[in-house]
Amino acid sequence: MPAELQWLTRSQIDASAWDACVAASLQPIVYGYSWYLDSVLPDSGWKWEGLVLSDDAGHYRAIMPVPLRRKCVLGIDYDWVVHQPLFCQMLGVFSYDTSVDIDLFLCTLYQRYRYCSTLSINRQPVGGSPLASFLIKRLGTHVLDLSIGYQALFRNYTKDRKLNLRRAKAAQWVVIDSFDPTPLVTLFRANHAVGIPGGVAEWAYDTFISLVQELHRRQLITLRYATYSGRIEAGALFVREGNRVIYLFNAASEAGRRGNARTLLIDQVLQDYAGKPMVFDFESPEKPSIVSFYRSFGAVEEPFEMICWSRLSQLERGLLQVRNKLWAR
């Protein structure tokens, strides 16, 4: 490892210097801040470390967060492996210096850890990486340029989206602002969790609530609920940091879906920030129906890449295959 590239544990990282590097980087996004990583990586079975490239004065010139999870398969402990955490769509290298070589970070990471299940790279192409062992998958989020103003944004809505927005307004939803994520979690448990393969672990809900509390403390969230006759039927959480508004989490009941409540909630936030030099990020999953919904607002794809690798032995790979088959039943 080059002398200027340091591998630091969380306790060794200068959080102020780290966060300043993220904020000044060409790839600024809220997921990279030390406090955000602390929130989405709970103590039990998770942690994060960092690769840091310093300048001659010792300032952080480039950083790369490394999220880790302890893995144990059929009684065999693989120690720590690289794994993308929840509520954290992309990470990668953060730097204000265009000459920084991302491959330097990736090679160092590859040499240190034998297994990476998923690691998404923050709008930086890794296709030219010399690491032929990487499996690279192209993904994309969907974004809107808010600087064009609301009238221009609305013109780019599809015909169906405009129609559903009119229906949502006619439904007479009462929209309320809140800082309490509990109704949002309740909606998600009742209406969405059942459709997730393997279900949702209790710690994931706890992590989400802790994250919302931290974001609220830093005054970075807009949490809105759509209600009818005093009953909450839909909710959406938006995170604003820097020049980006992220549609981080949402849920709706059947009544909320039928009444297009989430269309109304999104449209209201677009109006709030329209005309400002900002980007709205839908944080798109791979599900085609959801991607189609986001595109109906006029959103365009912003690509990023996900990498993974394995240097496990043949026996270890076999055990992983057995475990995956058991989980799939």
UniProtKB/TrEMBL annotation:
Signal peptide: none
EC nos: 2.3.1.-
Organism listed in the record: Spirosoma soli
Catalytic EC class: transferase
UniProt keyword list: Acyltransferase, Transferase
An example Gene Ontology molecular-function term: acyltransferase activity
Annotated InterPro entries: Acyl_CoA_acyltransferase, BioF2-like_GNAT_dom
Any coiled-coil regions, as ranges: none
Domain (BioF2-like acetyltransferase) ranges: 184-282
One Pfam family from the record: Acetyltransf_6
Protein name from the UniProt record: GNAT family N-acetyltransferase
